[in-house]
């Protein structure tokens, strides 16, 4: 079968090449992949419940990366669990998404209704479930002020929509005014550049940026509020002033998306089908153009997600 395999001598260190077809375990379905979505972590590495996953540059030649994919079940799970052959599904896993065929556990997929585009569904797993699970950690948010940093990115755009749907007063923080132009349409009550004008007393923060800004948002929390540390796109260290973390109860919590996405994927697919969620696809192309797509995504020249169709 064809797959995007690691090749350290080509742009983006990825090329289309032949590789062996996966052999599904008894609790796995074999999926004919129709669309994939890209995440920053696949290139740079990340941590899931699987442990630390290395980025493309650290993987051996021939490795097939990729977390998010949507397609059609070719072979149902041998143990009788999961959807039958012919079902349209969205899937997640630590690797192997960027291929014509993918073996995936039933616990990591959800059925996609016929009316939902598989490309749109492929954008849901990592970015959508991360936003959903991080928001849940904040507890009851209806009527509460919730700040989302890095709100113009993939996770951020889902977080803005999900927070607004839950009744929160969402403050979307972006790096420039241009990157925040359409966030009000997604449900943001306020759109700010950096932390300009953000008043103290925040119920919670979903932080995708890290660095010095992480220390600043911690200081803006209300008593009992928390920061969910989702990412660190700034690439900078966070330094707290002496005694900044001493005082009334506020918390900074590490975040890991984890696995077992089936239930949460079903929730998001349902919202997508009802028109309550927009995956915010900023780039749609063919997987043959993966090098260009990766470059565009990392240069932050597109809002939201990059989705590639598997031809």
TrEMBL record:
Domain Enoyl reductase (ER), chain residue ranges per copy: 9-308
InterPro entries: ADH-like_C (IPR013149), ADH-like_N (IPR013154), ER (IPR020843), GroES-like_sf (IPR011032), NAD(P)-bd_dom_sf (IPR036291), Zn-ADH-like_protein (IPR051397)
Entries under Gene3D superfamilies matching the protein: Medium-chain alcohol dehydrogenases, catalytic domain, NAD(P)-binding Rossmann-like Domain
SMART domains: PKS_ER
The protein, known as: Zinc-binding dehydrogenase
Organism: Pseudonocardia xinjiangensis
Upper classification of the organism: Bacteria, Bacillati, Actinomycetota, Actinomycetes, Pseudonocardiales
């Amino acid at each position: 079968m064809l797959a995007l395999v690691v090749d350290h001598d080509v742009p983006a260190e990825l090329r289309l090449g032949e590789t062996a077809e996966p052999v599904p375990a008894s609790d796995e379905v074999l999926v004919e992949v129709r669309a994939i979505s890209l995440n920053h972590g696949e290139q740079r590495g990340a941590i899931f419940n699987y442990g630390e996953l290395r980025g493309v540059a650290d993987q051996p030649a021939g490795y097939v990366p990729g977390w998010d994919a949507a397609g059609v079940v070719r072979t149902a799970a041998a143990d009788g669990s999961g959807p039958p052959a012919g079902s349209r599904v969205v899937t997640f896993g630590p690797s192997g998404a960027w291929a014509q065929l993918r073996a995936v556990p039933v616990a990591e997929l959800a059925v996609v209704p016929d009316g939902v585009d598989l490309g749109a569904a492929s954008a849901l797993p990592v970015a959508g479930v991360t936003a959903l699970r991080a928001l849940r950690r904040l507890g009851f948010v209806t009527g509460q002020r919730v700040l989302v940093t890095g709100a113009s990115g993939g996770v951020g755009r889902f977080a803005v929509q999900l927070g607004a749907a839950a009744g929160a007063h969402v403050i979307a923080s972006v790096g420039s005014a241009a990157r925040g132009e359409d966030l009000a349409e997604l449900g943001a009550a306020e759109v700010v550049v950096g932390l300009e004008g953000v008043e103290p007393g925040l119920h919670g923060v979903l932080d995708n940026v890290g660095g010095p800004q992480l220390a600043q948002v911690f200081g803006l929390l209300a008593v009992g509020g928390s920061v969910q540390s989702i990412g660190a796109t700034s690439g900078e260290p966070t330094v707290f002033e002496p005694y900044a973390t001493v005082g009334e109860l506020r918390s900074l919590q590490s975040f890991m998306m984890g696995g077992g996405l089936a239930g949460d994927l079903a929730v998001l697919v349902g919202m997508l089908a009802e028109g309550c969620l927009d995956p915010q696809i900023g780039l749609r192309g063919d997987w043959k153009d993966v090098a260009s797509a990766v470059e565009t995504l990392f240069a932050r020249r597109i809002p939201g997600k990059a989705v590639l169709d598997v031809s």
